[in-house]
Each structure stands twice: as structure tokens, then as C-alpha cells.
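During the second half of the funding period, the structural biology subgroup turned its attention to how the target accommodates small molecules. The most pressing case was NAP, which had performed well in the primary screen but for which no bound structure existed. We therefore specified the complex as follows and requested a full 3D prediction, including the ligand pose.
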Amino acid sequence: MRKYGVIGYPLGHTFSPQIHNPAFKALGIEATYEVYQIQPDKFNETVTGLKAGQCSGFNVTVPYKQKVIPFIDEIDPVAQRVNAVNTIKKADGKWYGYNTDLFGFLFPIENYLKNIKSVLIIGAGGAANAVCFALLDSANIKHMTIANRTIENANALKNSLDKTYNTEIETTSLEHESDKKYELVVNTTSVGMGQTQNQNPYNLLNSYTDKTVVYDLIYNPEKTELLKQAELFKLKAINGLDMLIAQAAKSFFIWTGKEFPNHVIDKRIFYK
Ligand code: NAP
């Protein structure tokens, strides 16, 4: 029986076992997917233990996507680019690191990409980093605004993007009321879930046109305050569930060499 799982802290909200376990079963793969919540002070010993044990691979989530890198033998170019690993596979006694978040993020907005020239990124953490690289690589973005609570973190992200891209990038606070209109607005902060479930990270009021797509990486709750505001303005609103499933499907392929059986996922079970 092969063993897979996810490491992170805290992990109370993860849907990943509900995605991978039915897929293993549907394809007759003898494997299980478990949750390994690792306290920060136990990180090194637990990852060393996972590598030494029966584990064939694992996902990595907040806050360990960078911290796990020294434990990996070879990192693929996408993960290297964003300096973050979310999928690890053991093969021939070596450990390989990948990042499937960029693919997962782009999947739900594939059909909109060609029309997106101006984008607002809310947040400047690990997910924002992956989102910015994915967008700047895949769409013809002319302008990007990064709005974040801590302006120094937004500036650090801008500086790292400026090394690779010529796109005009400005940074601002979350309270700033922009007079710019965006074709895509992406919330990459955790504002809208857990204790901040009733908060909206950014007021869309002056920033949208009737074509604006609003994409919140949060998948629980199903509709964040930001997405509710987008729907009020009759905009296309996308939550983070399709990204979660798409990045998981790519991890599944990396581990098993088999296409993910999409028919096993009934999205309604996530919101019961
Ligand atoms: P992270 O690196 O810790 O970054 C968190 C971001 O949220 C930072 O910009 C931070 O601002 C901001 N933030 C946190 N609390 C805030 C508050 N109370 N008010 C204002 N801003 C606040 O985390 P991450 O890895 O980027 O993940 C962020 C979110 O993306 C999480 O909700 C995660 O679940 C989601 N996500 C979803 C998927 C998916 O598959 N759907 C994949 C990856 C991530 P400061 O810089 O000021 O601290």
C-alpha cells in the first residue's frame, strides 16, 4: 500500500483527502492519502521521518512550501522559479519537488486569459507569488497592481517580478481606492475565511467593468464576501475549489502517471 499525504499547519480545513482517496479507489491504485499536521517545532524531524518511512510522496501547504526545499534532491524549473514546492515524489531513491499551483490557478480562467490586460492582485504572500508568475507568463498583462496589508511585502514581490518581466507593476495598500479598472481581480489573502469570514479584503466599487472576472483562491466558504460583492455587481465570480482540484489532479498525475478521474469528484460534498 503506497502512502501519500499533505503536510502543513494548521490543516483543519483541507479537502485534499476527499479528492485523492476516491481517485485512488476509482483507478484501483492501492494507496492512501493522509493529513500530517506538523507543528513548526517538529517540522525537521517529521519530514525526515516521512522520507525514511513508507511515504511515496506528499503535498506541501502553508507555511512549509519554502521550508521543505532543503529536503529535496531535485526541483523542477517551475518550482524553482517561484521558490516554492507543493508536490514531492519519491522515485529511484530520490526526492523530486514540483509546483502544481501555477497550473491549478490558470485552469479555471484559461478561457479569459487572452482578454486580460490589467490585473489587481490582492495579497503578496506565497500564493500571490505563484499567481503573479503564472499570469505574467501566460497572459499579455500590461498593468498589474499588487494591493497588500503590509506594503513592504508587496514591494518585495514587485522587486522579484521586475527582475523577470517588463510589465508595469504598482503596489498599494488594501484601503487605497483605485481609479483603475481591472479585467481580473484575484484575492490571494486569507481574508474571507476562518476568523475573517465576514470581511472583504478589497472594495471592488471603483475597480470593475462589466467584463471583470473576480477570482478568490479561498474555497471554504463557497462564497466569500468579495465574491458576494462581485455577484452583486453581476461579475463572473470564481472561487478556489477548481484550482484546488486542478492542482491536486496534477499532483496525482506526477505520483501515479495516470490522468485524474474527474468523475469521482462531486463538488457538492465540499459544501455540505
Ligand atoms: P501567506 O503566504 O501566509 O500570505 C497571506 C497573505 O494574506 C499575505 O498577503 C498577508 O498580508 C495577507 N493577510 C493575512 N491575514 C490578513 C489580514 N487579516 N488582513 C489583511 N491581509 C491579510 O499565505 P498563502 O500561501 O499566500 O495563502 C493565502 C490564501 O490562498 C489562503 O487562503 C490559502 O487557502 C489560499 N490558497 C488556495 C489555493 C487553492 O488551491 N485554492 C492554493 C494556495 C493558496 P501581509 O503581507 O500583510 O501579512
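Two results from this model are relevant to the next phase. The first helix runs from residue 16 to 26. Residues 123 and 148 are 5 Å apart (CA to CA).
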